[in-house]
Structures are given as C-alpha cells and as structure tokens.
Design goal:
The chain is α+β, with helices and mostly antiparallel strands. The protein is 35% helix and 16% strand. The protein contains 27 helices and 29 strands. The strands form ten sheets. Strands 2-1-5-13-14 form a five-stranded mixed sheet. The protein has a five-stranded antiparallel sheet with strand order 7-6-18-17-16, sandwiched between helices. Strand 16 and strand 17 form a beta hairpin. Helix 1 runs antiparallel to helix 4 (131-144) and helix 16 (415-424) crosses helix 21 (564-573). Mean pLDDT is 87; it is low at 1-31, 33-38, 40-54 and 812-839.
Length: 846
C-alpha cells in the first residue's frame, strides 16, 4: 500500500480506462509491471528473509534495538476553530493542515470497511507485517495491468506518515519503519491505530483526515458517509491528486468502483458488501454537491485577526499555556485542534455593520472622493472588558483595513482624561477658567521655539466658565489652561492607567487631543469611567478548549485605577455634551430610556471625528475618517463635519439596537463634600470625622504645646468644598512645646497683634488702658514679655491696649482654651480654626 505526499499537481498523461476490461496492450505492459511489482515486494519483504539467515533471535534483537527509542505516535496536527460567543457560530478555521480529528466511533462503519478493503483487509488478523498481503497485492497488480494495491499494512503506513522520512527510501530506513511498526502494534490497540490512520491520511485539496474530507467533498459528517461516498474517499488515499474528483472525475469514478469491486470480492462476512449492494453503488454518479469544496464561512471578521495577533504577542501573559514563545503559540493555534470561543456577539456585529452602512447623517457633497470616509467601531462590556464588537471599516471582508487598533487623533474626546487628572489633583469642577482663544505663553507649551496658539472649534473666543460648561461645549481654550494646572505628565499617567496603551508624550496638546490613540483604547479608557473607576483589560477570547477539555477560561482582569467618587464626578460632567452641549441635538429626540454619558471629538483640520460614550452596561467608541491618508473631511462632505455630525448618529443607531433588553441602570450620584473642622480633636476621632465626609486623612507630627495626639492644623481648612477622596492633611501634636520668639506688636492694632501672636501659638491677655486721644484707641501700647523674647509655645503674653474716654467694661474672660470655629483665615478674637494656629484671648482691668 502507498500513500502519496501532498499535491504535486501532476496531470495523468493518459486517460484512465476500466481496469476490469481486457485490452491487448496490457500484455505488452504485463512483463514490466510484474518485474516492478516483484521488485517492490522484494524490497518490502527482504527484512524478514534476511532475518531468517541471521536467526530469529538475532532479527528480533535488531528490530527491538531499531525501535527502542519509540514512545508514542506524535499528536496529529489538527485545525483550530474560532467561534463567536455562542460557541456555535464559526468565524474562522486556522490551520497548516486542514484536519478535523474525530474518534473512530464517529466514522461510519461502511467508511472503515471501504478503507480496510482497499488498503489492508487483513488488518485485524495480522501484526505489523503481512507477507500474504504483499503476494495478494502482487496478483492484483498483475490483473489490473498497473499497481493498484500496495503490500504495506496500515500500521506501517501510519509509521511512514507520522514517524517516517518520505525522502529517505534506504534499506536502513525501511528496516527501522518495520521495527517502529512493531512497537506501535505493541503500544496501541488496532482500533486506535485505525483511528489515527483515518485522521492522518491526505485526501487532496489541502484536506487531511476522513472527517474533513467528508465535509469538504460531500458536506456531511464522517458518521453519515454512504457506501459510494466512502468508496470514493478510500480510493483517493493511494493517489489523492490522481483521483481528485474535482479535477479528474472520470478517474475518481473508476477508482471508486475499484474499491467497490474489492468490497464485493471480500463479501459481507469479510468486511465487504454483497454483490447486489455493490452493483447499485457502482451505478451511482460521484454525487458531489454543486458547491463542493467551498467552505461555508464568510470572510472572517476583524476580531479573528485580532485574536490571532493577541495569541502571537500575548501582551498580558494570558496565553502562555499555549507556549512560552510566539512560535510555539502560533503552532498550537495552527495545529493544536483548539476550539477558541471569542467574546464577539454576532447580533452586535450585525448591528454595528448596519449602523455603519446606513446613509451618513450629513449628506456628502463629493461622494466620489477617494479614499472615501470609513468607520471604526468597538463595543465592550462595561463591567468585564469583554469585546462584543469590532467593526474595522465598512468593508473589512474586501479591503482588510484595520481601523480599530491603529491610532487616530481623538480631538476633544480625549478631554475626560484631562478632567480625571484634574480632579485627582484637587481641582474642582466649579473652577473658573478663561475661554479666550489665542497664544498660551507658558514655556512648557512651546514647540520649536513657538508658543502654543489655541483656537476653539467655533473659531471664536468665549468668556470665563466652569468645567461643567467647558466640557459640554468642548472649549479648547479652557482645557489648554486647565492642563497647565494639572501637569501634562499627570494626564499621561491617568490615561495609561485608564486603558490607553499607546505611548503619549507629556505635552500641552493633550488638552485638545492632538495625540494618537485607537478606538479600542478609547473604548477601554471610557470603560473605566462607566464602571466607577475600575479598569478591566479588554479581551476577545472567552475560553479555549481541546475537545471537551477546557484549557483556559478568561476571568475579567480588573482593578480600581481611579477613585469611584472622581469617576462619578467625570461621569457627571460628561452628561453635559449629550444633554445641552455639542451632541445634544443627536439625542434630544429618538433616544431611549437609558442614561448615557459621552463626548464628541474632532481632530486637527477636521481630518477625523469621534463619539465615545456609554451606559453603565455598554461602552462604545466610534471613529470616522480616512484610514492611512487622513484628509480634511470637507473634501468628502463639502463642508466641515464634527463628531456630532456623523460619528454620534452611528453610535446612537448601534446602541439603540444592542441595548434592547437591557434594564435601565442609573449612574451613581456625584458631587462635592465639605471639609469638617477637626482642630483640637484627638487624631483617632479626627480621622473618623474626615472619612465620614468621604475624604482621606493624612497625618504628620509637629511640635506643639497641645497634648500629644491632638490635631493642631488641617489643610484644606474647615468649610472648604472638596472632591470626595481628596486628602486632608492633619498636623498632630507631639506634646513638646517648641521655643518661639515673640514678635514686637507694640503700635499694632489688637487684631493684627492677635494674628501675629496666634501664629506662634501663645495665649494673650488684654489689659485695657484709657487714652485721651482716639488714634490710640485699639492700639497695643505695651507688651510683656517684650518683643524678641524667646518663650515656649503656649506661654502667655500681656498686651496693654488703649481705649477711648468711655469707661471700659468689667473684665470678661474668654471661654476655656479651645480651637476657634473660624474659616482658617485669621487668628484670635474667635476668628481662628481651620488651617491656622491657636490663640486664646482674655481681657483684664489694667
């Protein structure tokens, strides 16, 4: 028996004739055929006869030695299949050898019988070798006038296919193959050997294994193969190119009937069929379907290429179970027989395609302009990061253009990262900034020695405004000034933490989105906001199986990267663009019941436009532009378009489709908090109070006359509005009063004197002294100790203060020493507290 190599595309030089009709020319061919067949037989059976001359024991010893290194048949390469998230919809098959491996029980009995009949009818009776089959093959070849049967057993053929070297036909190699075949028979059952063989054989047209061939040639599983179908496939094993039914149907039909004749000759009791059944099968045509050989799969969507690239690169270390190197992982994908279930939802993918294919919301004036504007859309599960949709262009199946992982300028859709960094720096959303466009003179914003000239999208200057309105109306000038207070390096750090993977320069132009990010990264970054500051790495593979064994199941890889109150506050600001700002016209009518947040974006020169937005459940980013060669979109539309003009309508159409069935889920409330007064409180109590206001306490120990562990000062001061999670720094006494120098306050007003002395934490006793001149009233006339004296913090100072001609009131001591409830801007006179030192004042009669 012989099994050919993969296709060599040789075309027979003569037509195949009916091998059972006698032709005179067969006599002329008989002698060379006999000689060739005899030679072949001699080569194959030579080892046993050589063994006889050297003794049975010696032969066995040599055979055992030749096969000593055998451990097992190596795994048979098998194609991998990539599915949608339902585990049923096939997106693509990946292979070097197109092979689907099935157990023997899933191959129809008649298919097994047909293969055994033509290849090795005594398979279950003999061992690794079968000399009688060699002689029978010789006789059959003589009758046919050509070589129609080989003498090798199926076990020998399996060894050649899996362990052999087709290029090495030396006697030594043949001897070793015999030895290995004996080892295989010792290691595996006959059924297992047959199963491996039927899954290994090549059947033309890059099809390996009988199960794959059944689907390819007949569109049926191997378990449903009929007798004529099985005979055709069995006949192809010896020469799949010669008997290719697609190229040579006549040759394939005759070869099929050869197999049927062999099965008739064996009879039903010896693994064959009855003459009647065989005759009926021989009369049937090949029975190939009209679309034979066509793979019933659409061109794979972009996510298939993304999955393959992710497995190759393995940036997160998720796929190391497939191999430590990219080469090993590629091999496992192409040959490992994997079932890869992706996160892609076919219904969402169709919704994305429909949304992208709908007519543009703004009609182009130059629709024939090339290249035309295209679309990129990515949608994620907001709570896991699972990629539900990746639409890479309107016609990815045709042009294979990547629009979702390549970078584009995000324009103002980058502003949420600036806001997040600003709030982390303690800048309030109520902060007021100028909207006047023009040159920003800060040296950090210089480019090639030139200052940064910022313009608003409208091309006009605007007045001062808070960050709520600046976000809603996407005012570039406000954000240009904001990033100076935030620091570009802090914006970069926040953007990377939230999911932007591309390198970002720490430049002022981040404020207007003049950098490059991909729609996938944009969706990933906005997912962090949708999930309350928890970033989940986007993933496209839900699980990987081999057969019924689960090799890998993806768990969401999430962590809190932005404090939830800050994320909620950014969400609150991103309500503005869709309710009264740049995209309000898109959502003012026709939107559903779901609360949304989002931001438009327009790149420099209007070359690219965006809309990215989300509900608490779903995040979607939409990009519109020209891949590869960005040009002003006015060249296509005839006028300037923006994110709200063309990108937001696509987002809206898609989200309205996929959100059906989702319940309404509200965003968490957002707002500011008031810093409480904790001066004078023990540290433990102060911390509890600060945390109760949704702030974070941080303590530092300072010298102070107050009891150890008492809060001396705080920053921010009591009564200040702050962003939840903001840090309040508490200065806590160590109980050791420091030495301070008294300032000279003689000639100062009492108020000023109290402030100066309160700053060094001393007690003040006021003695009123009548004066004749009103200009001395309220002025410190003397002090004791005098200015310049060194005293301990917490000491007392007596001030003599002039009063007018009216008699002074009776002595009125102040309350016992305690922190003042003031606003932190002054000391003494009840105005203390907040972030300042303590001063205690009492009055006495001079």
């Amino acid at each position: 028996m012989r099994t050919s190599s993969p296709p060599s595309h040789r075309i027979p030089t003569r037509p195949v004739t009916d091998r059972w009709s006698y032709k005179p020319i067969a006599l002329l061919l008989l002698v060379p055929v006999i000689v060739a067949a005899a030679g072949l037989t001699a080569v194959v059976i030579a080892p046993p006869f050589v063994g006889m001359s050297m003794g049975v024991k010696e032969l066995d010893k040599k055979l055992q030695a030749a096969g000593a290194n055998f451990t097992r048949i190596p795994p048979i390469p098998q194609r991998s299949t990539i599915y949608a998230n339902d585990g049923k919809t096939v997106l693509a098959r990946v292979y070097l050898a197109n092979r689907e491996i099935v157990p023997l029980g899933e191959i129809s009995p008649v298919a097994r019988q047909a293969v055994l009949a033509i290849e090795d009818s005594g398979f279950y009776e003999h061992g690794a070798l079968n000399p009688s089959s060699m002689l029978r093959a010789l006789a059959a070849n003589i009758r046919a006038g050509e070589v129609v049967q080989g003498g090798s057993t199926i076990t020998q053929e399996l060894v050649k296919l899996t362990l052999g070297d087709p290029t090495n036909r030396s006697f030594g190699r043949k001897f070793q193959e015999v030895a290995l075949a004996m080892r295989v028979e010792q290691r595996y059952t006959k059924n297992k050997i047959l199963e491996m063989y039927l899954n290994q054989v090549y059947l033309g047209n890059n099809v390996y294994g009988i199960a794959t061939a059944a689907q390819f040639y007949f569109h049926v599983p191997a378990s449903k193969l009929t007798l004529p179908q099985a005979a055709l496939l069995a006949g192809m094993i010896r020469a799949p190119n010669t008997y290719d039914p697609l190229r040579y149907p006549r040759a394939a039909w005759l070869r099929r009937n050869d197999v049927l004749n062999r099965m008739i000759g064996l009879g039903p009791t010896n693994g064959g069929v009855t003459a009647e059944r065989g005759a009926r099968a021989k009369k049937q045509p090949l029975g190939l379907p009209k679309n034979v050989g066509q793979i019933h799969l659409p061109t794979p969507p972009f996510i298939v290429d993304y999955v393959k690239q992710q497995i190759h690169d393995d940036p997160n270390g998720w796929y190391s179970f497939l191999g430590a190197t990219a080469k090993q992982r590629d091999k496992a994908l192409a040959e490992g027989g994997l079932s890869i279930v992706t996160t892609l939802d076919p219904n969402w993918q169709r919704a994305a395609q429909d949304a992208a294919n709908q007519p543009w919301a703004a009609t182009p004036s130059h629709p024939d302009h090339r290249p035309t504007a295209d679309v990129g859309l990515v949608s994620l599960d907001a709570t896991t990061g699972a990629i539900r949709t990746m639409l890479s262009g309107k016609h990815y199946q045709k042009d294979q253009v990547d629009t979702v992982t390549t970078v584009h300028q995000p324009g103002s859709s980058f502003k949420p990262y600036v806001l997040t960094a600003a709030f982390e720096q303690g800048i309030l959303p109520t902060a007021i900034y100028s909207g006047v466009q023009g040159v920003i003179p800060d040296p950090r914003c210089m480019t090639n020695g030139q200052p940064w000239d910022v313009t608003n999208a409208e091309g006009t200057s605007l007045g001062s405004m808070n960050l709520y309105d600046a976000t809603a109306y996407s005012v570039n000038a406000v954000f240009a000034r904001l990033i100076l207070d935030v620091g570009p390096e802090n914006v970069v750090a926040v953007a990377h933490a939230m999911g932007i993977t591309t390198r970002l320069p720490a430049v002022c132009a981040l404020a207007t989105g003049s950098v490059g990010i991909s729609p996938l990264d944009q969706a990933s970054g906005y997912q962090t906001l949708a999930d309350g500051g928890i970033h989940c790495k986007p993933f496209a593979v839900a699980e990987v199986l081999r057969g019924d064994q689960i090799l890998y199941r993806q768990r969401p890889d999430c962590q809190q990267v932005v404090p939830a109150p800050i994320a909620n506050l950014v969400n609150d600001l991103l309500k503005g663009p869709v309710t009264y700002g740049t995209a309000a016209s898109v959502f003012s009518s026709g939107w559903g019941k779901w609360p949304i947040r989002g931001k438009t974006g327009t790149a420099q020169d209007n070359t690219e436009v965006w809309f990215a937005g989300y509900t608490p459940q779903v995040v979607t980013a939409v990009w519109v532009g020209s891949q590869g060669r960005p040009y002003p979109l006015a060249d296509y539309w005839g006028y300037d378009v923006f994110g709200a003009t063309v990108a937001a309508p696509i987002w809206k159409a898609f989200m309205l489709s996929v959100l059906q069935g989702y319940p309404v889920e509200r965003f968490p409330a957002a707002g500011l908090t008031t810093v409480p007064n904790v001066i004078g409180k023990p540290l433990a109590e102060a911390r509890k109070v600060i945390r109760g206001a949704h702030l974070q306490p941080a303590a530092q120990v300072v010298p102070s006359y107050l009891p150890a562990g008492t809060v001396v000062t705080q920053d921010p001061s009591a009564g200040t509005q702050a962003i939840p999670t903001q840090v309040v720094t508490l200065s806590v006494s160590n109980g050791v009063a420091p030495i301070v120098t008294l300032p000279d306050v003689v000639g100062s007003t009492l108020s000023a004197a109290n402030g100066a002395l309160g700053a060094i934490h001393v007690f003040v006793t006021v003695v009123d002294q009548p004066v004749k001149h009103s200009d001395k009233s309220g002025i410190v006339l003397s002090m004791s100790p005098v200015g310049g004296t060194k005293v301990k913090e917490g000491s007392s100072v007596t001030l003599v203060v002039g009063v007018g001609p009216k008699p002074s009131p009776s002595p009125s001591p102040s309350p016992s020493p305690s922190p003042g409830p003031g606003n932190g801007k002054g000391h003494g006179g009840g105005g203390g507290g907040g972030n300042t030192a303590l001063a205690f004042v009492s009055r006495a009669v001079p």
